[in-house]
């Protein structure tokens, strides 16, 4: 299977169309495999959670944002001044401008990426942002992991292996915290988040 193709997990696939294909291509080119797999697992966790709870959502917007949400942790897109999620929001606006998305939709892609590092929003307030929060929280620190069947977790990790993701991601956040001490990543590192990330049950799936 090509790295740019998406394996279905528990009957969930990727949305079709130019935007999703471009997001896959860019994420695969700039993220290492562990970070690329994390981006896809975040999407699948969110999509599975929405299906379980019966929520409708904009699958294209969510997928594109999930694939782009951590690219500002990579050297080509790392900002020396902005928190990585804010830099990621700007990256999303540039990326979606190339797709011809209108301003309001470009703003939404940026908003999802910024909000995934902020306080939780409810599905009623913003379903797509909530899905990215659910997906990233489960995949990074194991928060809310109990909401997903063990069989789903095993299938997801089987399709998109962890490959030392936890250790590498903690390293990314510690680097962000050292260089940008006022950012959300720094608050997480100071609050003992790293231990939760390293103890994520997905690594025993």
UniProtKB/TrEMBL annotation:
Superkingdom, natural source: Bacteria
Domain HD: 36-133
SUPFAM superfamilies the record matches: HD-domain/PDEase-like (SSF109604)
Native organism: Streptomyces crystallinus
Protein name: HD domain-containing protein
Pfam families in alphabetical order: HD
Coiled-coil segments: none
InterPro entries the UniProt entry points to: HD_domain
């Amino acid at each position: 299977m090509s790295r740019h193709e998406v394996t279905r997990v528990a009957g969930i696939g990727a949305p079709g169309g130019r935007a999703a294909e471009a997001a896959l291509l860019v994420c695969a080119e700039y993220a290492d495999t562990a970070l690329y797999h994390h981006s896809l697992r975040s999407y699948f966790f969110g999509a599975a959670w929405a299906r379980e709870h019966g929520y409708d959502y904009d699958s294209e917007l969510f997928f594109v944002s999930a694939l782009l949400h951590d690219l500002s942790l990579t050297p080509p897109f790392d900002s020396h001044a902005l928190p990585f999620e804010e830099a990621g929001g700007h990256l999303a606006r540039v990326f979606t401008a190339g797709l011809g998305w209108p301003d309001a939709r470009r703003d939404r892609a940026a908003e999802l990426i910024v909000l995934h590092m902020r306080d939780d929003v409810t599905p009623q307030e913003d379903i797509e942002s909530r899905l990215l929060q659910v997906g990233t929280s489960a995949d990074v620190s194991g928060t809310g992991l109990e909401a997903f069947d063990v069989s789903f977790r095993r299938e997801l990790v089987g399709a998109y292996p962890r490959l030392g993701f936890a250790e590498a991601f903690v390293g990314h956040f510690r680097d962000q915290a050292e260089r940008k001490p006022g950012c959300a990543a720094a608050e997480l590192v100071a609050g003992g988040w790293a231990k939760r990330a390293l103890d994520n049950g997905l690594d025993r799936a």
